[in-house]
Amino acid sequence: MKISDKIRVAVLFGGRSAEHEVSLQSARNVIQYLDPSRFEIVPIGIDKQGDWFLGNDIFTRSLEQNKVPKSLDNDTWFTPEWVGKSVTTTKDQQALSPSLNKQMFDVVFPVVHGTLCEDGTLQGLLELANLPYVGCGVLSSAIGMDKDISKRLAINAGIPVPAYMTIKADQWRANAAHFAALIKDKLSYPVFVKPANTGSSIGVSKAKDEKALFAAIEDAFRFDTKIVVEKSLNNIHELEVAVLESLEPNTDPIISVVGEIKPKGHEFYSYDAKYTDEHGAELLIPAPITNEIKEKARAAAKELFLLLECEGMARVDLFFDKDTQQIYFNEINTLPGFTKISMYPKLMDASGVSYSELLTHLIQLAIKRYQTKSQLIRSYAG
Fold it and tell me: How far is CA 74 from the centre of its chain?
């Protein structure tokens, strides 16, 4: 153990994602609420160009300016190739260099969102670096990020999903009129158009006619090369359930109370409703639905968490159709927003797990998983 006997936690924030600013908000709260008696914090920022930086001063500047300095003569320059290694200052004290003898930190807490962050890309890097990290692994991160693939798996398991179709950019460019006709015939208006691999409702639009559809699809293709066009359900509750892996072996995950999102002044729970309009939505915890529906929603969240091979945590987003009394799977978020007022920590808090306790639990899960995987044999002599 180190001299301080504290676990050194690398809090990773920012990233080359349209959700960069959301990540900064989440990271600020994670750093604030990590138990200082147990953890030593090593902030690592990634700017929108993909440059990595180390240090509290960088973290502060990035929150104020939504960016980090890129000067290589700054002694906080860092590189992902050094993840898993310690760093030391060079003779001129102007830059850092890797030390191969020891790790710089004990566990990574990724507080990042969106593509290249929660889609398995970052998780693969941390696996190669042989570091414990909080949250889902490579497979479930990739599945959870792709709205199309996660829906396919849910359908295969018999979990209801709103009718949808996927379109790739080259298909749309080649025959837009064909797909517009299919959407009108198979789904009917209104529809939601979503990039397949973004979160925070980025690039999501509701289209009520063909003109709006074309505009929505073009906008969604700005963020991804594959989109999902989904039938809009009528008279629904938008439900969210937080799921947390248990520290006890062979034990069901912890399933939170059910919450509901009610947009106010917005047609749906858009990016603006989430982050720019402080009155854009009402978060109802617990959701004002019957106990029977609550239990069905919690059971569906548990089933989806296990079905999609999730680890650590996930927030499961569901629709409850009041007309048919049916619960539908919307999407799963494997690195949900982590601001103090985000739905995931609020749901866990309402279920008896405080924000600080939640952070400690997730770090313990990361270390436990790493210790278990470390026992695997990585070579075979025949």
Answer: 31
Q: What is the pLDDT of residue 292?
A: 97
Could you tell me what percent of the chain has a pLDDT over 70? 80
- CATH superfamily, domain 144-160+234-372, is ATP-grasp fold, B domain (3.30.470.20)
The C-alpha atoms of residue 251 and residue 244 are separated, in whole angstroms, by 11
Low-confidence residues in the chain, pLDDT < 50: 1-3, 58, 62-64, 66-77, 90-96, 98, 100-101, 266, 270, 272-273, 277
Evaluate whether 26 touches 13 at the Cβ level (below 8 Å): yes
Q: What is the pTM of this model?
A: 0.85
Look over the chain and give the mean of its residue pLDDT values, rounded to a whole number. Answer: 84
What is the CATH T-level fold of the domain 164-231, as seen in this structure? Dna Ligase; domain 1 (3.30.1490)
